[in-house]
Amino acid sequence: MKLRFLFYFLFLLFLQVSCKTPMPELSSEAKLSKSKTISIRWTTTDPVLAKVFLDVFPVPPAVLLDDQVNVADLSTVLLPPPDPNDAPIIQKPKPMNPNELPRWDRGFELTNIDNLTLVIRNESQRPFKSIGISLLALTMMYYGTMETEAELVWTSGENNLHRISFLATQETIWAPMPFYIGTGSSIVAPILNSNRYPSHLQKYCIQEKPTKLRESMEQSITENCKEYEIFLRRLFLQNYEAIHLQLTQWEKRNQDWFQP
Hints:
Elements: H1 2-15, E1 19-20, H2 28-33, E2 41-44, H3 47-56, E3 63-64, E4 112-124, H4 127-136, E5 141-156, E6 160-176, H5 181-192, H6 198-207, H7 212-217, H8 221-238, H9 240-254
Parallel strand pairs: 2-3, 2-4
Antiparallel strand pairs: 1-6, 4-5, 5-6
Helix pairs in contact: 1-5, 3-8, 4-5, 6-8
């Protein structure tokens, strides 16, 4: 027990001089795309998602639903594995011929995004990778990583379920440490950091209120929500182009354009 607390103390100490993966930055094209609002109406029961999604993407504010509203819990829906053929293909818009009149597809598919939910599919701290990198650094470096795969799901109408799959994010942290301490910390850290899995943060921020015992052993609900917000921001920024492409395509299909 004393050894565990020693590792925990050293781990916290060296985190003060650690290096983390910086928050992703948008490309110049992505920054320009934020100047045009995407006209969609969307609802969600996740207040943190409502805040971050609005901050990152050029969409109107969400209609925040009370968690007591009778809506499907999309985080528990058993969906089949995502089909790689459904992954969005990022394509640059073709230049318009000035001698041709613009033509739009006439159609109507989606009116609302109902109960937008982030569903976390896979997450791992890659402990063997962390230990291997620490050994390559002659046991004098702590290395940790958190890799997550998620998708956005929502309903439209009564039976239509939609999803944006293949959203992935990775965050790494490393710090120089004394001889052998680096590898020891890399071994112990996944156990000490088990409460920082994104699914855990999501659960004890918006789905359940942690007990006093859990807060004393792990961290407060405020800290859970803070780290969950950082995770969402990183995920959306790293996958901005794919999500933005889907949003603009849905907006276009929602419009009942006259086709000349």
